[in-house]
Design a protein that fits this description.
412 residues, alpha+beta, 5-stranded mixed β-sheet, 4-stranded antiparallel β-sheet, 13 helices, 38% helix
Amino acid sequence: MTKHLNKIEKLISEICPKGVEFVELGKVCKPTANINWSSNIEQSFKYIDLSSVDRVTHVVSEVQTIDRKIAPSRAQKIVNKGDVIFGTTRPTLKRFCVINEEYDGQICSTGFCVLRPKKDKVITSFIFHLIGTSTFYDYVEATQKGASYPAISDSDVKKFKIPLPPLAVQEEIVKILNSFTELEAELEAELEAELEARKKQYSYYRDELLNIKEVEYKTLGEIGTLIRGNGLQKKDFAESGIGCIHYGQIYTYYGTFADKTKSFVSPELAKKLKKAQKGDVLIAGVSENIEDVCKPLGWLGGEICISGDMFAFRHNQNTKFITYLLQTTNFHKFKEKYAQGAKVTRVKADKILNFKIPIPSLKEQERIVSILDNFDVLTNNISIGLPAELQARRSQYEYYRSKLLTFNEYVN
């Protein structure tokens, strides 16, 4: 990869020795249009919703076929081959992709910003790779609005300034990144398949261990209470102070257990917020999908603040035991039964409290937890085995992408 970097550096020094121009993304993109449904009464279209774009592979899958009669209100934007679409609702989930020939002339959700490159200015894949950089997501984090359902406007996306080297430089960079992406994707696919097999094995043994016979079963409401969080928004985060957890961090940042927080709030604000205590199980109250809603996090640290749209389950059992039970296939089926909502998915507190779990002795709970802890570390710990290798590959790709897409800005 080093030789590729040297090649690009040499090319830049020859073609643009004084640096490159930086321009707003919108300045190198064409206007796009929405569909006029009244003029397309009989026609059907493939519809790309936010959930249609895979966050890892960045390709479109599982689209709906819609017509005027059944089109959701958000089914409005026409996409063409070569467009780059970027999910502006909960943008840090990184739902973005290039539209290929299969979806040329089809429809995407208003939850996407459609970027249609001016081909004499910028290459589609150059924009695609720029949207994957940490520089772009730092901008998104700083610009997005809203707490429980953060979003960034199309106009703000298009205000992001990108480097604009000559097309010849863009082509070389894209060629290198595409090649590196393909190699990385092949290896990731192999590692992902092996990791998925391990996770299935782990899930099977976890379900078996927790499918306990001949013990009393009780509802969560019989062994504890749910404390609903309040008021905390991402804009309230501070560099230091009182530890806090925002509901979205439960499924985007934390694993199964934690004893330290990523974020903090001021002591003044902390006085107004609901608290979680050591031993509580934190539960995400809302998400975009069934998988993430009600995701549990066993809290093993001291007192912290918690946001709205999440709960602290306070109980008299083994915290890890309860957390593992809320990961089982049984609980997932329970969530599917009671989940509600279109844009966001929720499970009401009273329904959560109705979930029945086995209550063996605390000694037996501890024995089961010690077995599951070993499985959990082997399967999920980012510093061990396959997950670490996956993360290393992704970090390597992100490093080289950042190097290839970093330019000195030309100043008159």
